[in-house]
Amino acid sequence: MSDKSEFILGVDIGGTHISVAIVNKLDWKIISENVVRNHVFSQENAKSIFLTWANTINSCVAACGSNVKHIGIAMPGPFDYENGVSMMTGQSKYDDLYNMNIKAPLSTLIGIPEQNIHFINDAAAFLQGEVFAQHLHTKQRVLGITLGTGLGSAVWNKGEKSFDADLWNTPYQGLIFEEFLVTRWFIRRFKELTNIEVTGLKQIITEHQDKPAFNIICDEYSTHLIDFLDFFSNKYHCTDFVIGGNIAKALPLLMASKKNEIEAFHIKTAILGEEAAIIGAAAQFS
User: Fold this and answer.
1) What is the SS3 assignment for 89?
2) pLDDT tops 50 at residue 7
3) Dist. CA 241–CA 18, nearest whole Å
4) For the segment 17-60, what is each residue's pLDDT rounded down to a tens digit?
5) What DSSP state is assigned to residue 192?
6) Which letter does DSSP use for residue 250 in this model?
7) Which of 5, 61, 68, 273 is the one with CA 20 to 30 A from 176?
8) 154: which strand partners?
9) Domains within the chain, CATH numbers bracketed
10) What pLDDT band is residue 1 in, cutting at 50, 70 and 90?
């Protein structure tokens, strides 16, 4: 690959993963043969996290044979995206990066100037990519939700770029919505009901679907999600949603008992997966 300005590094960082790819600015498509993925132990110390990120990014650059000069990174919040400062704490991820400027150490490790490292909310990046991929740009507004280790929310308005709706910490049932819609809720609630420890929803589905607790969890989770859809929809006067993230893959199973209620919303499941956030992150340089 030649060293041309039309190539941008797009990065999607989550609570357990990092995915990196080269995006061609001419058509905003990922050069798929160079996608590099790695598991991230986000509860480790800052040095370990930075090294995992940097090694993954550098591996992608080495594989493509190009000295890419710009990088867009999709990150979960809370995060100061303009200045590159992590504000995540108490969310079972990246606690050791709290209040730390990410740009400076990352710039040193990957050899890209700080001014060429841009951050964007992961849900906003995801929604931007999905609107493009699913040809939703004819709509006036689309709302995006990501369900995984955290709760992401974003808004896309016709003719504008997606923005972070920042609804994760909206008060709900004495706590906040995120505590009822993400992976740690499944782990905690299943333990309360069965005294069995699991690593997440995938294990519950594959190993414990025959237990009465599974139906209870599905019923409770679907109620929480519909409450959030109601809140989000009313706030932005829109019923068009794109939902992504690891939990989204199981929504047909989780929401089976709430088919009538869910029909009030026009929901599309994400089709690009991690690629949506990678493209949306790179598109900051459009």
Assistant:
1) coil
2) yes
3) 25
4) 999 999 988 888 898 777 899 999 999 999 999 999 999 999 99
5) H
6) G
7) 273
8) 144, 164
9) 7-124+275-285 (3.30.420.40), 138-270 (3.30.420.40)
10) very low
Q: Are 158 and 136 in contact (CB under 8 A)?
A: no
Return the amino acid letter for 265. F
Residue 45 has what pLDDT?
94
Would you state the structure tokens that stand for residue 63, as one six-digit string?
Answer: 């594989």
Residue 50, classified by CB atoms within 10 Å of its CB into exposed (0-12), middle (13-18) or buried (19+), is buried
Longest dimension (CA), the chain: 58
* Residue keyed to tokens 């989770």: 221
Q: Distance of CA 4 to CAs 65, 85, 208, Å?
A: 11, 30, 51
Give Cβ neighbours of residue 178 (< 8 Å, ≥ 6 apart).
91, 150, 151, 168, 169
The residues, ordered by sequence, that sit 6+ positions from 38 with a Cβ below 8 Å of its Cβ are 17, 18, 52, 55, 56
User: What's the average model confidence in pLDDT over 142-158?
Assistant: 94
Q: How far apart are CA 232 and CA 273, in angstroms?
A: 22
| Pure H helices in the chain | 46-64, 103-110, 122-133, 178-181, 183-194, 201-208, 212-236, 251-254, 259-262, 274-282
Write down the pLDDT at residue 132.
81
User: CB–CB of 154/127 below 8 Å?
Assistant: yes
CA atoms within 13 A on the CB side of 155: 15
The angle formed by the CA atoms of residues 271, 273 and 277, to the nearest 5 degrees, is 115
